[in-house]
Write a structure and sequence with these properties.
Two copies of one chain form a homodimer.
Chain A: E1 8-11, H1 15-27, E2 31-35, E3 49-51, H2 57-64, E4 69-72, H3 79-87, E5 91-92, H4 96-103, H5 105-114, E6 122-125, H6 128-137, E7 143-147, E8 157-160, H7 167-171, E9 176-180, E10 184-194, E11 200-202, E12 206-211, E13 214-220, H8 227-243, E14 248-257, E15 262-268, H9 278-281, H10 286-294, E16 308-315, H11 322-332, E17 337-340, E18 350-358, H12 361-377
Parallel strand pairs in A: 1-2, 1-4, 2-3, 4-5
Antiparallel strand pairs in A: 6-9, 7-8, 7-9, 10-11, 10-12, 10-14, 12-13, 13-16, 14-15, 16-18, 17-18
Helix pairs in contact in A: 1-10, 3-4, 4-5, 11-12
Chain lengths: 382, 382
Amino acid sequence: MNQQRPDIAVIGGGQLARMMQQAAIGLGVRLRLLAEGEDVSAAQVIPDHIVGDHTDLDDLRAAVRDARVVTFDHEHVPPPHLEALQAEGHACRPGPHALIYAQDKALMRERLSELDIPVPAHRVVTSADELDDFVESVGGYPVVVKTTRGGYDGKGVWVVNHAGSAAEAFATGAPLLAEELVFFTRELSALVVRRPSGDIAEWPIVESRQKDGICKEVVAPAPDLSDAVAASARDIAKRIAEGLDVVGVLAVELFETADGRVLVNELAMRPHNTGHWTIDGAFTSQFENHLRAVLDLPLGPVAPREAWSVMVNILGGSVEDLEAQRAEVLERDPDIRIHLYGKSVKPGRKVGHVTAVGDFLPDVIVRARRAADLFEEGKSDE
Amino acid sequence: MNQQRPDIAVIGGGQLARMMQQAAIGLGVRLRLLAEGEDVSAAQVIPDHIVGDHTDLDDLRAAVRDARVVTFDHEHVPPPHLEALQAEGHACRPGPHALIYAQDKALMRERLSELDIPVPAHRVVTSADELDDFVESVGGYPVVVKTTRGGYDGKGVWVVNHAGSAAEAFATGAPLLAEELVFFTRELSALVVRRPSGDIAEWPIVESRQKDGICKEVVAPAPDLSDAVAASARDIAKRIAEGLDVVGVLAVELFETADGRVLVNELAMRPHNTGHWTIDGAFTSQFENHLRAVLDLPLGPVAPREAWSVMVNILGGSVEDLEAQRAEVLERDPDIRIHLYGKSVKPGRKVGHVTAVGDFLPDVIVRARRAADLFEEGKSDE
């Protein structure tokens, strides 16, 4: 354990903290980690780590004690704890006043509506009767029901097709938000980064392709994106970053509709899966710019370095030993960029990602999918 | 400390091991470090480290114990210890039979001569009389005298201008090698990487500019390099890698002469200062390809990503707090790529490097020099 004062305390030891460390090494930034266990993804690569629970205020205090600033691998720190840390003089970036909108979907919808940012029609519902009223207000089924807090990667989200089929959602006992089911043509993501001083940088808008509610594939920049939609998506992300006083990376997941509108789906106030392509495909990665932003350093250039970058997640499949599989993946395509998270393989778990870059998009997509397939199933149809 | 078996044991905790870790994180490769102290450069970023002495065989054994392969941050492990590790079944990459030529300049000169690779005229000298004979054989002073082992960054090297001025060198008591002083027009470096199977990849030939015997600046690719000289430099590096059975990165420092010849100056069998530009300027960095090579994985593409990359070392100067200086450097040039090594500042010590990339070389050079100046002295004339 090194004895130097850390620059940044990172709460949560997942792959986002792990990838922050790659950027921190170059910048000479010292990270301290609050890790869920001794050998979690980021604890494998950050010597100065404390094992503890991010829902325990004393563990949080131990981790942030002498750090200059505090940032996050996830949104799961309880808001009262964030407020307590802030009140005790710790600079949380993003701060609790911003993070709450990434933690609570009902508050987020309400606040974005106030900011006049387009969101799906929505209402907090506490009973089947209230849900019926909402369904009627949007012209009938299907609608979407979500827990206001704690859902991610498709968990805590139900598509409700008829009266009574929301029973599972109500059975959770959690506060629920009902939303219109947006008939989108595709999902976009707007990734921006903001300093405490207000400077903002915006990576190109990307297209995100989901599988079973989990981001599976990202194409950067989004193909065939009209200038108007791109400008609208960028404008929305900037206004949210400013309106909510976000510091660090903000990812705004968006629905693009057939009539050229964009609506906000979700927010994340940390490096995000739809920004992993920036490690290999942009002049400054989201991880480096996140660190630069939370330290209030000038932001790095966000231009793409290649015509196309395609990132595909590696989800846990039948291949158990990803490290052993590396050789075959690289044998097939030595140019593919591999990112393994040091996680054990479980079905559907995000255990890594691959990125391909190049000039001809169909080829870049095939290469990235093939590499991910090989890591998941040991074979590929691509 | 994590409990997993490491993939690679790295001997030596300097900046090369530190930068290997950035690549290792992506590949999902677990490193174990033998570090000189608890908070040396690489120990700050590699949790699985052992503090010990690379000249102590038991410390080496403890570090390499359960690692799949062993590699190095420097050339200072005593050859008998390397032989012992190898005999005990540890795969040293490069192996002692190759490393010896990076450790002993007399053996290196002899072996390269056998391989018919151009080197300066040279002779091992044990007395002033033998030095006189050598001086006569090369047509008079000046000549260069070097310790055969242990020198680096200008240490252990003397330019001898007249009889008697080699006294300091002889006073060391170390075995000495006398060499003709080559009147070179510039220094080049040929960086290649080789797998155990024999596959080789070659980055572009770069120009290296020294200051007081220390590499200060690298321009990639070497400007105005004739095709013939480039081919000759590449050919030399490949023949050395093959002839000496090098595994991993090999850097061949070369003199280019006015009449278009290249002569080998020094060898390094590890990532090398003249290859740091590859982190930001090539599709695969020397650090990633070194790891891929020692694990016998397919090598990544070595093409440059930009027209020009210029790396300038940050040598310890009057600025003591490099981390505090980061803000000013980035304020002046947010596009500069910063690499700090987590080392305390001492006069002339390599404490980091910066890399600029771009299309117009004079501008790229100015930007890189200015950033390094700001880190060294807090101001720049550029």
